[in-house]
């Protein structure tokens, strides 16, 4: 779809997101708070999250499973957004955490999430990270290789502990996601080869310090159909059936995550059919189920508020230059991802759309958000970059000497600063210059 064909795309984007609404005077609001008021008080760029949107999505996830008579343990993928306030909202509503490092483990613990409600994933766990997780009573370690299984056994034995583990299986399933977010193919770095899984599980049952409880799988992100998940789960369930037939206990199936969200006004992930599929293929096997959503929960619960710095015109193009760039939101440069961009002012939103390339201020050619159809936007105009709650602030940097943006959480209609805007001098506050150079 070319830019002109997306005339007034912003109206469709907003209509598809319950937390967003127009006000004829105040312009675009998020959870009943005018974004222009947030920008006026806290500046831009600025991350804005909606706690009620996050709670509603968690409730929707639970309700979809409950309709099928299922109640999987929810372990939020912390890597999507690791802010303590976000983790606290989810913890208060009963979610645990899926962590991939000691840093994420410590953050989840600091937010009040019990280690027993955590899953430790990741292909490169260090021995000190494993030791800390076992010592704290981690609920499950997802084992990525035979070598890692040996490490865990040695560490747990030395500590006089036994820790529950799940073998992460690589089912060699092509899920149709972007190459850089696909994780379940034979050539990907994640998981244990399918052909090795049964023998390694038997081996795990004989190891000191190891209590094998089941299998886990995760085939990628931004998946919109239940079919790839079903194919992966059926392969893993075949492993479980084979082990149980030999009298080996398998009690748990970790379903992973990867549910897609539309960054446009397209079709959302088919959550009720997915839950129905899980019941159909796994619901009668007496397995404890775990699900690890990240982006699906928090992505639509956040946006990046930015201001137009200037509009640059050439013979070929209109460039709308924002004060937010790839140092703030890396996804477009990293994955060629496209986020909806909408004007905040009601006056701007009533304008006629024209093609524009939206770019950031960073000195890299890849610092671009893409081609959009936008009204005429004067310097100082505000725009909202939507669905930025996942892999936004968590992946941001201070590249080009650009401080971290402020973060706000709207809690019951009141915006709260949850991270102050970084000051210029904070950019080098922790740096040390040897005395000879001082």
Helix content: 25-40%
Q: What's the story with the biggest beta sheet?
A: 9 strands, mixed
Number of domains: 2
> At the third CATH level, what is the topology name of the largest domain?
TIM Barrel
* Poorly predicted spans: 1-6, 178-186
Number of strands: 21
Average pLDDT reading: 93
- Based on the coordinates given, report the CATH architecture of the largest domain: Alpha-Beta Barrel
User: Roughly how many Å is the radius of gyration?
Assistant: 23 Å
Give a short overview.
This protein has 438 residues and is α/β, with parallel strands linked by helices. The protein has helices spanning 9-15, 35-42, 51-66, 84-92, 102-110, 127-136, 146-159, 197-206, 226-245, 271-282, 295-298, 331-335, 346-349; strands at 20-23, 27-30, 33-34, 46-50, 73-77, 96-99, 118-120, 140-143, 163-170, 192-193, 210-216, 252-254, 288-291, 302-313, 318-322, 341-343, 354-359, 368-374, 382-385, 406-411, 414-419.
Notes on the protein architecture:
With 438 residues, this protein is α/β, with parallel strands linked by helices. It folds into two domains: 4-50 and 299-428, Lyase, Ornithine Decarboxylase, Chain A, domain 1; 52-298, Alanine racemase (TIM Barrel), CATH 3.20.20. Helix content is 29%, strand content 24%. It is built from 13 helices and 21 strands. Mean pLDDT is 93; it is low at 1-6 and 178-186. Substrate binds at residues 295, 331, 335, 364, 391.
């Amino acid at each position: 779809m070319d830019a002109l064909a997306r005339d007034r795309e912003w109206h469709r984007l907003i209509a598809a997101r319950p937390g967003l609404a127009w006000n004829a005077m105040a312009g675009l609001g998020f959870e009943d708070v005018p974004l222009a008021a947030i920008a006026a008080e806290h500046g831009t760029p600025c991350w804005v999250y909606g706690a009620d949107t996050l709670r509603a999505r968690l409730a929707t996830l639970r309700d979809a499973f409950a309709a099928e008579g299922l109640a999987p343990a929810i372990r939020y993928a912390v890597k999507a957004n690791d802010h303590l306030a976000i983790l606290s909202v989810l913890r208060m509503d009963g979610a645990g955490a899926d962590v991939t490092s000691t840093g994420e483990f410590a953050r989840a613990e600091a937010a009040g999430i019990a280690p027993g409600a955590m899953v430790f994933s990741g292909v490169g766990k260090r021995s000190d990270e494993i030791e800390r997780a076992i010592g704290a009573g981690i609920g499950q370690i997802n084992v990525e290789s035979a070598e890692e299984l040996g490490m865990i056994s040695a560490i747990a034995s030395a500590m006089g502990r036994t820790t529950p583990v799940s073998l992460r299986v690589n089912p060699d399933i092509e899920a149709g996601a972007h190459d850089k977010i696909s994780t379940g193919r034979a050539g990907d770095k994640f998981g244990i080869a399918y052909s090795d899984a049964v023998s390694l599980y038997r081996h795990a049952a004989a190891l000191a310090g190891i209590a094998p409880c089941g299998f886990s799988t995760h085939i990628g992100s931004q998946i919109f159909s239940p079919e790839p998940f079903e194919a992966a789960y059926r392969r893993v369930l075949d492993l479980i059936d084979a082990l149980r037939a030999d009298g080996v206990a398998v009690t748990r199936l970790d379903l992973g995550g990867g549910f897609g969200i539309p960054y446009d006004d397209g079709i959302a992930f088919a959550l009720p059919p997915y839950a129905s599929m899980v019941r159909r293929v796994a619901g009668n096997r007496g397995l404890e189920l775990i699900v690890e959503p990240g982006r699906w929960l928090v992505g639509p619960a956040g946006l990046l508020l930015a201001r137009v710095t200037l509009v640059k015109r050439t013979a070929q193009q209109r460039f709308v230059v924002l004060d937010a760039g790839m140092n703030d939101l890396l996804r477009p440069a990293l994955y060629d991802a496209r986020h909806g961009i909408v004007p905040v002012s009601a006056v701007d939103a009533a304008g006629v759309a024209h093609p524009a390339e939206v770019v950031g201020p960073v000195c890299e050619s890849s610092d671009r958000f893409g081609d959009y159809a936008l009204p005429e936007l004067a310097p100082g105009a505000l725009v909202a970059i939507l669905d930025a709650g996942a892999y936004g602030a968590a992946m941001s940097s201070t590249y080009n000497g650009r401080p971290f943006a402020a973060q706000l959480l709207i809690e019951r209609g009141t915006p709260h600063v949850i991270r102050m805007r970084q000051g210029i001098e904070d950019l080098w506050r922790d740096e040390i210059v040897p005395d000879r150079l001082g």
